[in-house]
Specification:
The strands form two sheets. The protein has a five-stranded mixed β-sheet. The chain has two domains: about 110 residues, Ubiquitin-like (UB roll) (Roll); about 150 residues, Fumarate Reductase Iron-sulfur Protein, Chain B, domain 2 (Orthogonal Bundle), CATH 1.10.1060. It has ten helices and seven strands. The longest helix has 21 residues. The termini are far apart. The chain binds iron/sulfur cluster (SF4) (2 copies) and FE2/S2 (inorganic) cluster. The site of one iron/sulfur cluster has 14 residues, from helix 5 and helix 7.
C-alpha cells in the first residue's frame, strides 16, 4: 500500500517504471524505481535521482538510465519520450500533474517507438533530420558577406510563417502518425561506415518523410528568398515517401507540443504539389 503525505492527493512515494534496453537490437525489459515524493519535480529531475541512486527497487546495482536532453525548457525536442502512453517532452512533464492522472502512483517511461533505440530512453532520430534534408528545409545563401536587408514580408505573411517556424524537430508528430513506420537497419559485416550511411539515407528517403518536413516545405516556400527553391522542395514531396502517403488521420496535429497547424500545412502542400506538377507538365 502507498503511504499518503499531508495532502489527500499527494503520495509520499511513487514508482517510475522504465522500459530499458542495453543497446541497439537488444531485448527490452521493465525496471521499477520507487522514489520519495518531492514537490515540483519533472521527469528529468526524477531520472537524475535514479542515476544518482544507481540501484533498482530490489536493491540491485544497475547502470544509469540513458536519456537525451538539452535545453530543459521544451525548445530543443531532445528529451521526447512516451510518458504514461503519451508522447511528450520529459523536461516539461511535471510529476505533480502526472500523479494526478495516475491513481496507482505509477509513471511509465518508454522510448519513442518510431526510431531505433540507442540505449534505454535514447533513440536515433537521424531519420527525422534526413526528412528535412530531403525537402531542403533551409534558405540557401550565396555568400557570407553583408547581403543588405532581405526582401520585406507583410505582417500577415509573418504571422502565417511564425507558428511553422516553432518546430523543434521533436518527433511527436511522427510518433503518432500511422504512416510513419520504424526503420531500423543493421550494418552488414564488411560494410564501411560511409556505405552504411548511404544505404540508410536511401532507405529513409523511400519511407514517409513525415508531417514535420511537409510543414517546413510550406514555411520555406512562403519565405521571399526561400521561394526560389519552391519547385525543388515540392518535387521532393512528390517522390517516393512523399506527401501522397499521408492518409489524413490527423494524429500528428493532435500531439504537436507547439500546436503547429500540421494538417493545414499538409493541405497547402498537397495543393502546391499538384499545381507544381501541372505547371511542369504544361512547361514541357
Ligand atoms: S511539427 Fe510539432 S510534433 Fe512535429 S517535430 Fe515539429 S514541433 Fe515536434
Ligand atoms: S495527417 Fe498525415 S502526417 Fe498527420 S498523422 Fe495523419 S497520416 Fe500522418
Ligand atoms: S530538454 Fe529540450 S525539449 Fe526537453
Amino acid at each position: 500500500m502507498i503511504a499518503q503525505a499531508d495532502s489527500q492527493s499527494t503520495p509520499s512515494s511513487f514508482t517510475v517504471k522504465i522500459l530499458r534496453q542495453d543497446g541497439p537490437g537488444q531485448p527490452s525489459y521493465w525496471e521499477p524505481h520507487t522514489l520519495q515524493y518531492e514537490p515540483e519535480m519533472n521527469i528529468i529531475s526524477v531520472l537524475q535521482k535514479i542515476a544518482a541512486s544507481g540501484r533498482s527497487d530490489n536493491g540491485k546495482k544497475v547502470a544509469p538510465v540513458n536519456w537525451d536532453c538539452n535545453c530543459l525548457e521544451e525548445v530543443c525536442g531532445a528529451c521526447t519520450m512516451n510518458i504514461n502512453g503519451r508522447v511528450r517532452q520529459a523536461c516539461s512533464a511535471l510529476i505533480d500533474n502526472l500523479l494526478k492522472d495516475s491513481p496507482d502512483h505509477v509513471i511509465q517511461l518508454r522510448p519513442m517507438s518510431k526510431f531505433p533505440v540507442i540505449r534505454d530512453l535514447m533513440v536515433d532520430r537521424s531519420r527525422l533530420f534526413r526528412g528535412l534534408t530531403k525537402v531542403k528545409a533551409w534558405v540557401p545563401v550565396d555568400g557570407y558577406y553583408d547581403l543588405g536587408p532581405g526582401p520585406r514580408q507583410s505582417r500577415s505573411e509573418q504571422e502565417a510563417a511564425y507558428p511553422l517556424s516553432e518546430c523543434m524537430s521533436c518527433g511527436c508528430c511522427v510518433e503518432a502518425c500511422p504512416q510513419y513506420n520504424k526503420v531500423e537497419l543493421i550494418q552488414h559485416n564488411g560494410e564501411s561506415d560511409e556505405d552504411f550511411e548511404k544505404r540508410k539515407q536511401e532507405i529513409f528517403d523511400k519511407n514517409f518523410v513525415g508531417p514535420h518536413a511537409i510543414s517546413q516545405v510550406v514555411l520555406f516556400n512562403s519565405n521571399p528568398t526561400g521561394k526560389m527553391n519552391a519547385p525543388e522542395r515540392l518535387n521532393a514531396l512528390t517522390e517516393e515517401g512523399g506527401i501522397q502517403l499521408c492518409g489524413n488521420a490527423q494524429n500528428c496535429v493532435a500531439v504537436c507540443p507547439k500546436e503547429i497547424p500540421l494538417t493545414t500545412s499538409i493541405a497547402k502542400a498537397g495543393r502546391a504539389t499538384t499545381f507544381n506538377q501541372l505547371k511542369q507538365w504544361f512547361d514541357r
